[in-house]
Amino acid sequence: MKNKLNIEADNFELLFKNNYQFLCLISLAIIKDKDAAKDIVQDFFVSYWQKRNSISIKISFRAYAVKAVKNLSLLAIKKVEKENSLFKNISIQKYDVQEFIEKPNSRSIVLEALNKLPWL
């Protein structure tokens, strides 16, 4: 005789098998990265499993899953855009430092500043 957890696991496995590929296509259409799309859908299913007792779905599971995967995909795009923006800022700052170091007398200024630092 199966206990409640085994029944839930069987139902979850069925939801996963019936929806995984479809949800991957939904995510792929948004983020254009196959591996990232798979990760997003897997993350969705992990989150769904962890919250299964507190989630109340008023529509079909598929409709709920599509909306969740779309939202996760859009968040992933925003995260990548933010990371790219930060990398651009870092590379600009790096360039400014390099430019400063290459200026005449700047090497001596840097060495002088280093010599003023306290030694442990």
Brief summary:
With 120 residues, the protein is an all-alpha fold. The protein has a single domain (4-116), classed as Orthogonal Bundle (Rna Polymerase Sigma Factor, Chain: A), CATH 1.10.1740. Helix content is 82%, strand content 0%.
Query: What's the helix count?
Result: 4
Which stretches are low in confidence, meaning pLDDT under 50 for 5 or more residues running? none
Mean pLDDT: 85
CATH architecture: Orthogonal Bundle
C-alpha Rg (nearest Å): 25 Å
Total domains? 1
Shape: elongated
The top-level CATH class is Mainly Alpha
Describe the structure.
This protein has one domain (4-116): Rna Polymerase Sigma Factor, Chain: A, CATH 1.10.1740. It contains four helices and no strands. Helix 1 (4-31) runs antiparallel to helix 2 (34-51) and helix 1 packs across helix 3. It is an all-alpha fold and 120 residues long. The model has no long low-confidence stretch (mean pLDDT 85).
Highlighted features:
mainly alpha; single chain; Rna Polymerase Sigma Factor, Chain: A; 120 residues
What topology does this entry show?
Elements: H1 4-31, H2 34-51, H3 61-102, H4 106-116
Helix pairs in contact: 1-2, 1-3, 2-3
